[in-house]
Amino acid sequence: MHPEERLYADFAAEDLIPLWTQVGDLMPEHPKPKARPHVWEWKTLYPLAERAGELVPVGRGGERRAIALANPGLGGMPYATPTLWAAIQYLGPREVAPEHRHTQNAFRFVVEGEGVWTVVNGDPVAMRRGDFLLTPGWHFHGHHNTTDAPMAWIDGLDIPLVHPTPPACSTAGACWTR
């Protein structure tokens, strides 16, 4: 066997892959994004969210009524970009989205309404049109609409980044999620 062939065979036997054989795919000279530019118009999103508010209870779908923006270039995945899950969330009059928590970090950008309170780890924060709120991962949070009018906002979570990340485990065997 030729020395170079032997080298590659030894790499394969040890489950090794040399960078020089993969660099074009791993680090292309030019970006090759799968996501495509796309516009979701509020005048279309909001009426659909209102209809969902009439037909779908908050309790379905992880205690939230959220409708994900699916970039047409990502093959049907519920992601706006390869690193961002984004959705319109709609909370009807006098509705409550109960407290929960998740490993992902989240933001909320309020587009419609006011009078909703988000509670993060027991601290209430008012939500008004134009507000941008951050919720770090693993913090309990819920939303309370105390008004007679609906409210809608854009949620963003780093689900595509966190989802493929396995739980971390200590040497003692205790595991937690990121």
Radius of gyration: 22 Å
Low-confidence sequence ranges: none
Q: Tell me the series of helices and strands, N- to C-terminal.
A: HHHEEEEEEEEEHEE
Structural class: alpha+beta
User: How many helices does DSSP assign?
Assistant: 4
The biggest sheet amounts to: 5 strands, antiparallel
* Percent of sequence in beta strands: 25-35%
User: Quick one: how many beta strands?
Assistant: 11
**Going across the major beta sheet, what is the strand order?**
1-2-9-4-7
Give the overall silhouette.
elongated
Give the helix level as a range of percent. Answer: 10-25%
Distance from N terminus to C terminus (CA atoms, Å) equals 47 Å
Can you give the mean pLDDT? Answer: 90
Top keywords for this entry?
alpha+beta, five-stranded antiparallel β-sheet, 4 helices, 178 residues, four-stranded antiparallel β-sheet
Map the helices and strands:
Layout: H1 3-13, H2 23-26, H3 42-55, E1 66-68, E2 85-91, E3 96-100, E4 106-112, E5 114-120, E6 123-128, E7 132-135, E8 141-145, E9 151-157, H4 159-162, E10 168-169, E11 175-176
What this model shows, in words?
- By secondary structure, this protein is α+β, with helices and mostly antiparallel strands.
- The chain is 19% helix and 31% strand.
- The chain contains four helices and eleven strands; from the N terminus they run H-H-H-E-E-E-E-E-E-E-E-E-H-E-E.
- It is elongated.
- The mean pLDDT is 90.
Summarize the structure in short:
This protein is of the alpha+beta class and 178 residues long. Helix content is 19%, strand content 31%.
